[in-house]
Amino acid sequence: MISTRSAILPVSLFLTIGCTATPVETDIEPGHAVLWAAHAAEYQAASLQVYSQATRDLPQLRADPSFSALPNHKGESDKPPAVILDIDETVVSGVDMELTLLPFNTVRQYEWGLTHQTIPIRGVTEFVNAAQDSGVEVFFVTNRPCESRMDTDDRCIQEQGVVDLVAEIGIETDREHVLMAFERPEWNKEKVSRREHVAESHRVIMLFGDDFGDFVACSRAEPGAPCKTVATRESRLDALEAYKDYWGKGWYILPNPMYGSWTSVD
């Protein structure tokens, strides 16, 4: 059974030339995106490549006090280095859940994690351990939400769920290093506020994610504060060009054709 959230790859894809989207007919059927992530060696190779390259880059970016992966925080050499990673499809795989859980919701996602083995994204455990061993602090910024539950006094039990998930794949962290959506009133699904929170005390040298919004602020069609404009395909391509020097040097994106903010823009 294919999750409706996964079955989003259209039969007619778009080839973008400049700012004009031209439809191109293909034989790709809905649902192939999640099957590719579940079974393709190419997906495993791409993930391994991302984290292998990041591990090689780590000593140089850590040692360069002038470098920040946040464009508006250059030259903050007095702060200790840190990296920020998304969780889903960046640290842990949700492919098995996407194949079997219908319909998707965040409560089911949390409960799934309690009863199923956690699958790591290829290469992430080795990278995070290398970062921590070198004295780089690791933060996880996820859009999994804090939600109240009737069976616990913990107002954000999902946060402990994330700590437990990453522990299963050999990564040690604590709740102070997991920043959830809606954990604070100002922390919506626009991640820029949480990145800025980390930047108050650390020099962020690397960002990892599977979505454009893990790197570039205001890239969703339904923007949250502090964003005031609606993202479009054109605006995202403009941002891609504006920040081209960061991709592969501080910014590391993983493939996720299953879902994401790209599906929301026109």
Which outline best applies? globular
**Class inferred from helices and paired strands:** alpha/beta
Multimeric state = single chain
With helices defined by DSSP (H or I, 4 residues minimum), what is the helix count? 8
CATH class: Alpha Beta
Distance between the termini: 28 Å
CATH topology: Rossmann fold
Spatial strand order of the main sheet:
7-6-3-8-9
Low-confidence stretches: 6-26
What radius of gyration results from the CA coordinates? 18 Å
**Strand percentage, roughly?**
15-25%
Helicity range: 25-40%
Mean pLDDT across every amino acid position: 87
CATH H-level homologous superfamily name: HAD superfamily/HAD-like
CATH architecture: 3-Layer(aba) Sandwich
Order of helices and strands: EEHHEEHHEHEHEHEHE
Biggest sheet descriptor: 5 strands, parallel
The total of beta strands comes to 9
Count of separate structural domains = 1
